[in-house]
Amino acid sequence: MGPTMPPSKKAQSPSSGASASQGMSPPYRQGDAATAASEAEGADLSLSVSASFSKAEDEELTSLSWLHESTDLLNSFSHSGLRSVSPLQDPDGQQTRSPSSSPSLDDPLLGDAHSPYDLTGGANRKPPYSFSCLIFMAIEDAPNKRLPVKDIYGWILEHFPYFANAPTGWKNSVRHNLSLNKCFKKVDKDRSQSIGKGSLWSIDPEYRHNLIQALKKTPYHPYSTGLAAASNSPPIASLFLSVPRGVIQNGARVRSQALFPVIRPLPVSPVGSRTSAIRSSLGDYLTRGQDSPPPCGEDLQEDHTYSTAKSPSRLCSSPVASPSSTLDDDDIIAVEIQSDVKPEPREIPVDSHITTAASTCISQQPPRGQRRNSSGAGAGTLPGSSLPWTKARARGISDTLPLKKRRAVEKPPESDDEEMKEAAGSLLHLAGVRACLNNITNRTAKGQKEQKEALRN
DNA sequence: ATACCTCTAAACAAAG
DNA sequence: GCTTTGTTTAGAGGTA
Questions:
Q1: Where is the composition biased (Basic and acidic residues) (predicted)?
Q2: A363-398 pLDDT tens trace
Q3: Which of A90, A155, A339, A408 has its CA 20 to 30 A from that of A184?
């Protein structure tokens, strides 16, 4: 028997690894506890994202418009020809990464022309999303929020060209996920509909929230190491955005920062219009800044070249827990953007709504240990970032957890504000943004406190 | 070293 | 009988 089996919707086999691991009292690492405490503190200190939005916008954000926009982003990145400078290359396009690192057909340097920031992964590269996330997006993108397996295949094929030429095993994986992951449930087929054999699959509302959380965590990205290795890319240009480390760590983040202020619910379909709307707004914001977005239909890449500062995945997959994610004296890093639009350096305050949104995104993430200990379904995220949200986690597993963890698992439904934060965070996440802002807010608050004390003395 | 998570492969059964 | 769908088991590989 292999490692832990994801919890099955059906009765667990007695020999199942899931039952074995579920019965186990999970190790409660010190780091995890520290993380939990840190996150709790961060949550308190985090500024409210809603401050940046009207009530109407709040409501809009609580809808799934962000998801549709996100899927549009997938389209826009894959079809628009947008291509940011690979962090594996210097501005001149020279390879900066060791040729010996991760040589594979999937290598961005060897593969197709898609950027590592291309969330579709391109034709030769596996998308960064787990199957569970793909299925979730597919189903959520469906008008009725339910799809037969066949259409799920179709959606994935449509949005992720990689699978067009991939071995058919991925379909098996999709079915495997549908079957095993409790977040997905079969819907009794309407007899009037002739969809062929099989059932419609939908998202279990009870676990939809968890799927959103899973989705908003940046999915596992096989190139995170490579991205990290590329952090030495030399400065490019004249625009310096001083932002807290972790807020902007690659080009996608720069884009996504811009994305957040322009979130608007868009028609659920057609995809093209949503895509163009997003792209347009995004381009506007990037070109002029958030205060005065002008029309902009040009390729972002042409005017803005983004360099990376840190590995996105490394820093943020465990933003709070990781000691490396804590901010040092050089909290303010320079992100150089090649642009002739904004020649002067610009400071982005830590407590801007952008960073705040990102911080809430992070703060929503349960401690790694907590996630891990809850036994995973076949729903995925990035490697090591398991989903905290299977039924087993919410129910059966929680019974075996220490009280502290159990409470976390069984926490009551989040408020609208939490949902809104979540949606905002999801957007940021889906656009490639993950940030370690709990630390930032923590440090900000801490710094202010220290300042006050110093003044007092 | 260990536990956990995700993916993949495969076998099998049921349904169309 | 074939194909598709759904379920289950097993193991590999990666991460923390």
A1: 339-350
A2: 333 333 333 333 333 333 333 333 333 333 333 333
A3: A408
